[in-house]
């Protein structure tokens, strides 16, 4: 049997390409032991049984080969919510919390708005908004039935009942007269030839959730065109996008007839979110 601190140090040495080797090692060992990361620190000298050590070493080998930690554990925290993820969903990133922050900033605390989340994936954005605005009704859509199953499981686990899930290609599942006070989306926005698609965790994620044509804006153009038919007058549209797409988004918003378009930056000072409202 091997001590916890020894297992962690051995794993860290293998994670040469990870941006957070200690965090990755601790998350995987916590998962293997069914214990918290604080337990690892408090009982660093405790020995791990052979079966658990073997299971941990298999996880370490897969992580060292590039598999995302979230896929290995089946979970990722977003907006302090523990979410199930899979290869069918995009792994929620901290940068996407900017979209949630801005959505909440525009939704009054006591509002009973109708809100749509397009391309919901694991349900991260929809569930975060639903948890903070319980009087609002959220319609979460995705083209992938596998992703919808994950999102529905997350909603059930979190006990959030003010959310409805629909199989939809963007706004295709909305009734002709169905209107929303806000529509949000973290759509695919990576260029088909982007070299980052062959690097890091992205290699293992769904191309359906990542790639949108030659310039990365195919999905966003469709959303802008369709969403304006389902927003109330003055309704908001918020879209996450790539670090170099902010100006394009503002131009697309203006061309499509939206008003007050602006772009906000994430914690790394990169353009990450553009929003506008229907006049």
Descriptors:
two-stranded antiparallel sheet, about 280 residues, alpha/beta, 10 helices, about 35% helix, elongated, seven-stranded mixed β-sheet, Rossmann fold, single chain, Helicase, Ruva Protein, domain 3
Summarize this, please?
The chain is of the alpha/beta class.
Protein model, in words:
The structure is a single chain. The protein has about 280 residues and is an alpha/beta fold. A 7-stranded mixed beta sheet has the order 7-6-5-8-9-11-10, sandwiched between helices. Helix 6 packs parallel to helix 7 (about 125-130). The mean pLDDT is about 90. The protein has helices at about 5-15, 20-35, 35-40, 50-65, 70-75, 95-105, 125-130, 145-160, 220-225, 245-255; strands at about 1-5, 45-50, 75-80, 80-85, 115-120, 135-140, 165, 180-185, 230-240, 260-265, 270-275. It is elongated, with a radius of gyration of 20 Å. Helix content is about 35%, strand content about 20%. It has 10 helices and 11 strands. The chain folds into 2 domains: about 1-65, Ubiquitin-associated (UBA) domain (Helicase, Ruva Protein, domain 3); about 85-275, 3-Layer(aba) Sandwich (Rossmann fold), CATH 3.40.50.150.
